[in-house]
Amino acid sequence: MSVTYVIRFDVVPQQRFRFLSLLEGVLDAMRSEPMFHEAVLHADPASDCRFMLYETWEDHEDVLNVQIKRPYRQAWHEALPELLERDRDITIWKPLRSDRAWRRS
């Protein structure tokens, strides 16, 4: 069964550009992983330095044992203490239903 991670970030204002640059590299690389479903990055409209990311993956154990250890994540994980005002807030959710609008061309 798939699993979704909701991650909230409070970014140091002077690190906003670096935060987004490093995160975009990770998101771009994740997209080609076979166990990856989707990720959506959100910006808080009330703060330029608050972000929320949700990622859905096929399997929690794969995320813990394989995905977190991917080389493309190393620079991101090493930089987090400098990028963030406080530790990330990570919660884990199990999807029950997914609805999306169909767009016709």
Give an overview in words:
- This protein is α+β, with helices and mostly antiparallel strands.
- It has one domain (3-93): Alpha-Beta Plaits (2-Layer Sandwich).
- Helix content is 30%, strand content 28%.
- It contains three helices and four strands, in the order βαββααβ.
- Strands 2-3-1-4 form a four-stranded antiparallel β-sheet, with no helix packed on it.
- Strand 2 and strand 3 form a beta hairpin.
- The longest helix has 15 residues, at 16-30.
- The radius of gyration is 15 Å and the shape is globular.
- The mean pLDDT is 95.
Question: What's the CATH topology label?
Answer: Alpha-Beta Plaits
Largest sheet: 4 strands, antiparallel
CATH architecture assignment:
2-Layer Sandwich
Q: How large is the count of helical segments?
A: 3
The computed structural class is alpha+beta
Poorly predicted ranges: none
CATH secondary-structure class: Alpha Beta
Number of strands: 4
Oligomer: single chain
The rounded distance between the terminal residues' Cα atoms is 32 Å
Number of domains: 1
Shape: globular
Largest beta sheet: strand ordering: 2-3-1-4
Proportion in helices: 25-40%
What are the defining features of this structure?
105 residues, alpha+beta, Alpha-Beta Plaits, four-stranded antiparallel β-sheet
Please write out the topology.
Elements: E1 3-10, H1 16-30, E2 36-43, E3 50-57, H2 60-65, H3 74-83, E4 89-93
Antiparallel strand pairs: 1-3, 1-4, 2-3
Helix pairs in contact: 1-3
